[in-house]
Amino acid sequence: MIRPNDPTSLSRRRLLGAAAGAGVAFATLGGRSFAGASRPAARSTAAGAIYDGPAVTLRFWNGFTGGDGPFMLDLVDTFNSEQPNITVEMTTMQWGDFYAKVPNAVAAGSGPEIAVLHIDQLATNAARRVILPLDDLAAELELTEDDFHPVVWSAGIYQEERFGIPLDVHPLGFYANTGQLSAAGITELPADKAGFEGAVTALQESGVEHPFWVTATWPAHLMFISLLGQFGGSLYDEEGATATFNSEAGVESLNWLTSFIDSGASPEDVAADAQAQAFRQQTNSLTWDGIWMMNEWAKIDDLEWGASAVPVIGDQPAVWASSHQFVVTRQASNDDMLAAASAFIAWISERSIEWAVSGQIPARNSVRESEEFQALEVQSTLAAQLPDVVFPPTVPGIGDVTAPTFELAVNEVILGKSSAQEALDSAAQRADELLADNRSKYGG
User: Fold this and answer.
1) Are 258 and 413 within 8 A, CB to CB?
2) CB within 8 A of 178, min separation 6: which ones?
3) 198 domain-assigned
4) C-alpha atoms less than 13 angstroms from C-alpha of 409 in its C-beta half-sphere
5) Does 113 share its domain with 153?
6) Alpha-carbon distance 86 to 344, whole Å?
7) Statement to judge: residues 312 and 436 lie in one domain
8) What is the pLDDT of residues 216-238, one digit of tens each?
9) Structural domains of the chain, count
10) Is 142 helix (H, G, I), strand (E, B) or coil?
11) pLDDT bracket for residue 444 (50, 70, 90)
12) Is 84 exposed, middle or buried (0-12, 13-18, 19+ CB in 10 A)?
């Protein structure tokens, strides 16, 4: 059983919901490359990145409106104090507003030079020519796949060019009320299907009426993605051109989730995030939620809880995750800005242990392998899931396909409005239409 040594305030539920459904007007900007033979270099040294050009002000936009925001602001303030020639001005807004505003703001010349994107939005903004290729930046700073976990490093590539520099990975985790488990005679967090189902039964027999709440919306579709991968399925084919979530694996995943409602282990019609509130109030013993929720649990003084990898319900481990990636926009209008942006990204990356405390897994290997990170018990425990994370294919518009397709199907099935196969078949048909529209819209 584990719990964090140093609880810190964090509130990030719904972080990815806005990102998944955000839609923005198509914008195409003029051509520009990060490459520039004459621009000042941001040199990578033992002390970190150094920028030696003239004074530059960089606008940095992100969606860190929860408990993670103060962590990033502290990093920015420290960077500004150490870099006399660079001033970074951080602007934070809700992710839905962020994804709607950035392309048009950059096109109008009033946007950021640096931003953070989720991976399901990276290809979209690359195709819209909102962000710059960063192969030269990575080479300049001597960043290679060896510095990162391969799955998160490759997620920053679109059409054989790098557009993102990974900052972190944030997967689902499994959280349990260890006090209630102990009262039910269970001393270890269950790690597989038999153990999980046995724990639910034991908790019910010990007096917990609803040990595992299955939501009708957030984060049910993230649980579905995890289960789909565990049962050997996938959301889309390798090219991201055809929906495949209506497979036998998809049906099995939804039927497993609804079995807890059928058995009475979960209430019916659980609203978004209601399971998180129930976990705080100790009326829900077991929950799957994002790593960012760890600091929410830590704020509850009388809550005994532990965290571990999402149990393997199917035939193989798999877990939903996303990643924040640094990007440079075409708003970086001169070589000094590009070099300063390079220095800022490198500086934050090298110090991402401070970002990890906010409830994140650093993308950089050297940070994850450090003693400081290993001391962060929840983060280091959930980092063991990195080889098993499920990312969406890097194709434009993929983030806009989620809400009206399989997320809607999950909702309908959990609410008992449709069978799993019917709902997933209908959603797959709609997804194929949207994917075809995206190919027409973005090319390819």
Assistant:
1) yes
2) 1, 189, 304, 305, 306
3) yes
4) 29
5) yes
6) 9
7) yes
8) 999 999 999 999 999 999 999 99
9) 2
10) coil
11) low
12) exposed
Instruction: Quickly state the pLDDT bin for 9 (edges 50, 70, 90).
Output: very low
Task: Tell me: pLDDT of 47 over 60.
Answer: no
Q: Residue 343 above 50 pLDDT?
A: yes
Q: What is the pTM of this model?
A: 0.89
> For residue 318, what are its two tokens?
């798999």
Q: What share of the chain is helix, strand, coil (3-state, %, to 5)?
A: 45, 15, 40
Note whether 213 and 226 are same-domain residues. Answer: yes
Q: How confident is the model at residue 50 (pLDDT cuts 50, 70, 90)?
A: confident
DSSP state of 222: H
Average pLDDT, the chain: 90
Mean pLDDT value across residues 405-413: 98
On the question of pLDDT at 33 being above 70, the answer is: no
User: Residue 443 has what pLDDT?
Assistant: 82
Residue 424: which pLDDT band, with cuts at 50, 70 and 90? very high
Does 187 score more than 80 pLDDT?
yes
Taking alpha carbons only, the member of 160, 131, 126 closest to residue 399 is 126
Q: Are residues 206 and 298 in the same domain?
A: yes
Beta bridge partners of 286: 176, 212
CATH number at residue 177: 3.40.190.10
Structure tokens given for 411: 């909702």
Residue 158 lies in domain:
15-167+323-390
Is there a single domain that holds both residue 19 and residue 162? yes
Which spans in 351-407 are helix H?
352-356, 365-368, 371-374, 377-382
- In a shared domain, residues 191 and 156: no
d(CA 233, CA 269): 26
Q: Label residue 49 by pLDDT band (50, 70, 90).
A: low
Number of continuous H segments (helices) and E segments (strands) in the chain: 19, 15
Helix locations, 231-369, DSSP H: 248-262, 274-280, 294-298, 335-350, 352-356, 365-368
The CA dihedral of 57, 63, 68, 74, to the nearest 10 degrees, is 10
Contacts of 217 (CB under 8 A, 6+ apart): 271, 272, 407, 411
Instruction: Give the orientation angle of helix 420-442 with respect to helix 248-262, to 10 degrees.
Output: 130
What percent of the chain is predicted at pLDDT more than 90?
A: 86
Tokens of 394: 């890097």
Residue 392: partners with Cβ closer than 8 Å, 6 or more residues away: 119, 120, 235, 236, 240, 398, 399
Please check whether residues 163 and 176 belong to one and the same domain.
no
Helices 69-82 and 335-350: crossing angle in degrees, nearest 10, is 120
Strands 157-158 and 114-118, by their bridges, are unpaired
In a domain, residue 7? The reply is no
Q: Which amino acid is present at 67?
A: G
